[in-house]
Amino acid sequence: MKRVLLLGMGPTALSALESLAGQFHVVGIVREVRQGAAADDAVARRAHELSVPMLSDAGLDAVQRAITESEPDCTVVSSYNRILSAEILTHGKFVNVHYAALPKYRGRANVNWAILNGEPETAITIHAIAPGLDAGNILFQQRIGIGPDDTAADIYSALNEIQRKVLGDTVTRYLDGFPGVPQDESESTYGCTRVPADGEIDWSEPTDRIYALIRALSPPYPGAHSYLEMNHVTILRASPIQDARRYAGRIPGRVVGRSRAEGSVDILTGDGILRIHELIIGENGEMIPASTAITSTKQTLGLRSSDLLTRIEELERRLTMLTDQETSRHRHEQSPPKQQA
Fold this sequence. Notes:
Distance between the termini: 101 Å
CATH superfamily of the largest domain: Formyl transferase, N-terminal domain
CATH architecture of the largest domain: 3-Layer(aba) Sandwich
Number of strands: 15
CATH topology of the largest domain: Rossmann fold
Number of helices: 8
Largest sheet: 7 strands, mixed
Structural class: alpha/beta
Number of domains: 2
Shape: globular
Order of helices and strands: EHEHEHEEEHEEHEHEEEEEEHH
Helix content: 25-40%
């Protein structure tokens, strides 16, 4: 039985492992799992069931050592956030799984960008790895549609199922001599890295754009967020209002409707109304109905100059109070003791 090493740090690793284990001896999986947290990681649990060693050091030097020591027939990459150097690529054959229709959307956050950009479809592409970003001959590609309400989690789930069915067969075909089809470099596009701060909602944008941001950053991603009276608010679930009341007087982010029974709140956007169903207040809060946190049509989501000025004034007041207390304490310590008569 041929041997493979899997580099799988993200949400695609489980179906990759299961697909490969059905046809190969998986000599190990490179995946960062905190010490003592393996029981909470589905990939680590499945690796244990399959007797596949977990290699927790995902650095490039450690990966190169793992390859040279285990001598796999193929190293398979499915969710690994580093670019393998040309030196590493001299140590055998390498295959990568990419959730986009290469050569489109090379790079990071491919599914997120596809939803954000309103793409009608995305794809799973399995390709031989060549030096460069997501370069190399295409071994397999299958496209899927992106529905108007699909979240990033929905798309990942669909693509993971395809990967589970085809990855093992595709790697086998490659090792048996299939060279794949060259990518058309003139058609290549790229997606840059996204960071949590990129998820802040601009309520002056169109409803569909804001809704796409919320869907693109659904869990396990950090979530699209805004602010309510300086409190960080993560929007978990929302829906556009069709045939919404038209506002000639419009303040984007303003609350214009609230249903305690449904737990929802209606927010003005740049061109319509978005209904928020569930959210989280604070960085580590719990999911709650939107109407529990947002209680008035006088409230507005988003950072506002008046909120920032109020916070600055409060901080200045506290600083002045602390300074006065420190000065008073210092004077008391420096004053000579009173002499008794």
